[in-house]
Amino acid sequence: MKKQFLIIVAVFSSCIFGSTQMVMAKPLTDLPESTAPTIYSLGDAVSDFKLKNIDGKMVSLADFQSAKGFIIIFTSNHCPFSKSYEDRIIALDRKYTSQGFPMITINPNDPEAYEEDSFTNMQKRAREKGYPFPYLTDETQLVSKAFGAMRTPQAYVLKKEGGKIIVSYLGAIDDNAQDPSGVTKHYVEDAVNNLLAGKPVVTTSTKAVGCAIKWKS
Length: 217
Description:
Layout: H1 2-24, E1 50-53, E2 58-60, E3 69-74, H2 80-96, E4 103-107, H3 119-129, E5 135-137, H4 142-147, E6 151-152, E7 154-161, E8 164-171, H5 187-196, E9 211-212
Parallel strand pairs: 3-4, 4-5
Antiparallel strand pairs: 1-2, 1-5, 3-7, 6-9, 7-8
């Protein structure tokens, strides 16, 4: 009787762990909100995601096979801080995409809260500024929640390592949200430069300054 009980427990446990692995292997956008992964911390491996770009195509990290890592920035149309960083984000893309760290921007906001953040207005703004990088809409907000994004803009530097994509920096883009000419510390640039040089990131996290993300109720 005891032997039969142990066999039943072993089979039950196997089923539980097996199903968990299958769920977590899915892209974030395929998961119901109740099973969304916990918030990423420094050193965590990021799950791939698939979000709609302004050209209507779906974009995932797997699309960038030759990338050494990524610069992910949660941003928006309406936020004055995001507008202040717009040219700096474009400059980061031009500097680092060719070196293996492509820029991906994501709008996490509920467009019902701000019409300026609608998909149509995202397309319009990207055309006006000539965005050379993907500008994705996070309609379910699952990706934004998994990253622990709270403000726009908020930056993440990821590196590819051992077949995984690891969080290496998170926080502000630099130390002056309002005045580009007053920047003295370039957090994202320094993080990427360290990784390109094969060195550890010195400043791994800072406090993002910007507009609070508008979550769906």
